[in-house]
Design goal:
The complex is a heterodimer of chains A (345) and B (165). Chain A has twelve helices and two strands; from the N terminus they run H-H-H-E-E-H-H-H-H-H-H-H-H-H. By secondary structure, chain A is mainly α. Chain A has one domain. In chain A, helix 1 packs across helix 11, helix 6 runs parallel beside helix 12 and helix 8 runs antiparallel to helix 12. Chain A is globular and about 65 Å long. Chain A starts with a helix and ends with a helix. Chain B is an all-alpha fold. Classes of the chains: A mainly alpha (345), B mainly alpha (165). Chains A and B meet through helix 4, helix 5 and helix 6 of A and helix 2 and helix 3 of B.
């Protein structure tokens, strides 16, 4: 293993980590601005021009607040909870290809931290691990509302993971690979997977709303029933970590959706741009396009939040088990039949 | 390098497995069990079995243990409402445990050590090779075990269904 390789990966990891934190930070600002726009208000506009410094002010406030650990909580687990939520939110970015490889001199630098041949399953594993932060935090608080919320989060995640996995299986039938890099390369130009798997994409996006605990599936933090949900007892930056992890999760799942179904860094006419813009700027334009797709998805997340009211718990379970799972299985069967017919003729 | 990493991870596995047994709080036990499963995932990666590692990660750590934790949190077991065991039960337990360990040691002594398994293909654990093996020579056992799982699932659903009046 040569030292340039290590340095290269280290720089890449640092950049990706910084970008995801900044995007999560400004997602809180964007969320309030989008909410304000949809409700015909102004939103935050006091801190800095257009309220641009609002996230910094919020962050500072979080750090300055008093740190409270409830007397009857399990202290160690109470502290582990938010950390785990943050960790599982951040490690998902490791396998996402952020752009095609850059050529500097005679060295080819891939814009992806790790290209493992089970990339999709890795993402899936990280997602399924995400619920532990909520469960441990909710249980360790020693508060009945937090516990109820933790249990809700667990059952919601398990239910929607199944439909999500089944929708991915249909996608794998089309792509024939689990490596995210190869999946993106197959979608060159405008051959995006959403054209081949529209139903699978709809199932996947509904499930990712449920997995990230976003409205209309934000039952674990349903204020009208559970006070603040699993983070009722949390204060200061521990609360901040939980809120922050939600936005990072949103960013990562947007990136995954853009990678799997919307062509990642591919866009129509990219060959022409690559030839004219050179080996460094060309791939970076692809990365910019990729981020534009991600921002569109983040906006969609917010748009839905301020449009659709929260589900009731039985409706949530009904939709997951009786709606999405049969639909996903039907999607697998139809995809399989169509592929068999195409290969035959 | 490889061997020392193995011994380190193996020691961690043993340590966390012991912690599962020795913790008083059942929720802590389950959390230690999750960490134990994580060390197993590391073992699979050391054996170059990426697919098995990720599946172990998703199924055991991500699904089954979440269900365990879910049930334990619902039951809310703790030290106060755990029934106290009498001394007689404790003595019987110690004797039974000693008997078990003698039996296991005896049977281990009796069995002969098998030859070390050498894989013909060191990349067998990678996704493509594993899939070819599973759906080629091992097709029948693979399908049979999936039918077994399906049967268990149908049985579980049937058990939870209330009888129609």
């Amino acid at each position: 293993m040569d030292i340039t390789f290590v340095i290269e990966k280290f720089i890449l990891v640092t950049i990706i980590f910084a970008i995801s934190l900044v995007i999560a930070m400004y997602s809180t600002y964007a969320e309030r601005k989008v909410a304000a726009f949809l409700q015909d208000r102004l939103g935050p506009d006091r801190a800095g021009p257009f309220g641009m410094l609002q996230p910094l002010a919020d962050g500072l406030k979080m750090f300055m607040k008093e740190e409270i650990i409830p007397t009857n909580s399990s202290k160690w687990l109470f502290m582990v909870g938010p950390g785990l939520a943050m960790l599982t939110a951040c490690i998902g970015t490791a396998v996402i290809p952020w752009g095609s490889a850059i050529t500097i001199g005679d060295r080819i630098v891939p814009l992806q931290v790790a290209d493992i041949n089970v990339g999709i399953l890795y993402i899936f594993g990280v997602v399924s691990l995400g619920v532990y932060g909520v469960m441990i935090g909710g249980w360790a608080s020693n508060n009945k509302y937090s516990l109820l919320s933790a249990i809700r989060a667990a059952s919601q995640n398990i239910s929607y993971e199944i439909a999500m996995g089944l929708s991915i299986i249909a996608l794998l039938l089309v792509t024939n690979t689990m490596s995210l890099k190869e999946i993106v390369e197959q979608q060159h130009g405008w051959h995006w997977n959403v054209l081949y798997q529209p139903l699978g994409f709809i199932i996947f996006i509904v499930c990712s709303f449920a997995e990230t605990n976003r409205a209309p599936f934000d039952l674990p933090e349903c204020e009208t029933e559970l006070i603040g949900g699993y983070h009722t007892e949390y204060s200061s930056m521990k609360l901040g970590f939980y809120l922050f992890a939600e936005y990072i999760n949103m960013f990562v799942s947007s990136a995954v959706m853009a990678t799997l179904y919307f062509g990642g860094y591919n866009y129509p006419g990219m060959d022409w741009v690559l030839v004219h813009a050179g080996p460094v700027i060309g791939p970076l334009i692809g990365t910019v396009v990729f981020f534009m797709k991600i921002f569109t998805f983040i906006f969609f997340f917010m748009w839905v939040r301020w449009t659709i009211p929260r589900f009731r718990y039985d409706q949530l379970m009904h939709l997951g088990w009786k709606g999405l799972i049969p639909l996903a299985i039907a999607n697998i069967i139809i995809t399989g039949i169509v592929i068999a017919i195409i290969e035959k003729f | 390098m490889g061997t020392s990493v193995f011994y380190f991870v193996a020691a961690l596995s043993v340590f966390f497995s012991l912690m599962v047994i020795f913790s008083k709080n059942p929720v802590h036990s389950v959390l230690y069990l999750i960490v134990t499963f994580f060390t197993f995932t590391v073992h699979y990666i050391l054996l170059n079995a990426q697919f098995l590692a990720v599946v172990n990660f998703i199924v055991y750590m991500g699904a089954i243990m979440v269900l365990f934790l879910f049930v334990l949190m619902l039951l809310n077991l703790n030290k106060e409402n755990e029934p106290l065991k009498s001394n007689l039960v404790k003595i019987v337990g110690v004797i039974a445990g000693c008997c078990l360990i003698v039996t296991i040691m005896g049977s281990l002594k009796a069995t002969s050590v098998s030859d070390p398994v050498v894989l013909t293909n060191p990349n067998l654990g990678l996704l493509k090779n594993l899939g070819k093996e599973l759906f080629g020579p091992f097709m029948l056992p693979f399908e049979l075990s999936s039918i077994l799982l399906l049967t268990a699932m149908v049985g579980a659903v049937l058990l939870t269904k209330k009888e129609k009046v």
